[in-house]
Amino acid sequence: MKNYTYYDAYHRPRKVPGYFFQKCFGGKSGIFLVSFFIAIILGKIFLWDEIGKYGSYNVKSIGKVNAGTMDIWGLFGYLVLQRGELLGVLILAGFTRLKKAVYYLCSGAVGCFMGILMLSFFRSFGWKGIPLLVVSLIPQWVIYVMLFEFLWWIFVGSEKERKLSRGWAVLCGIGVACLFLCGIYLECFVNPLLIGYTKSFLSI
After folding, report:
1. What is the pTM of this model?
2. Which of 37-46, 50-59, 123-132, 174-183 has the least mean pLDDT?
3. Which of 9, 39, 138, 162 could join 158 via S-S bond, C-beta 3.0 to 4.6 A?
4. Closest Cα partner for 195 from 62, 73, 61, 57?
């Protein structure tokens, strides 16, 4: 296995296994991380005032999250339509020659969005905004990331291995639909409860 060398705080050489380095900093994850940190740096320097305005919207939105009073099924339908648009774009892009570029672009866009979102939560709630943001993204984004990786495997990763067949396409379609609906369900029915508990715990 190829190793990559870096130097610690005392300028001593250290080895990082190549597989770990590639997984964390290569491909889609690398684009995500780079975009995430660039968005944080540039947002803090150039967009701090605008982020403050966006942060006030976050305060109102988080304040309205109440599992007992929300129209859960209305939210479910809305998210199916909203998230379904992006899912449709990723699926259609998978049948084109630009599929890798589109998926990399999506990784970078999500990284930028997460960076700006973290800044807005930090400006609105201080240090409490970081755990609140993490909770607001869990558990649905775990499923969304799994869905994204599954789509990548379908259209890119298994391109040289798979045998195109109707049965294979049906199984993949069922898997995509299950992950998509599972993520929406968790976002609508589980996430509001987690946000409510976190707000109470952090006294927000």
Report:
1. 0.77
2. 50-59
3. 162
4. 62
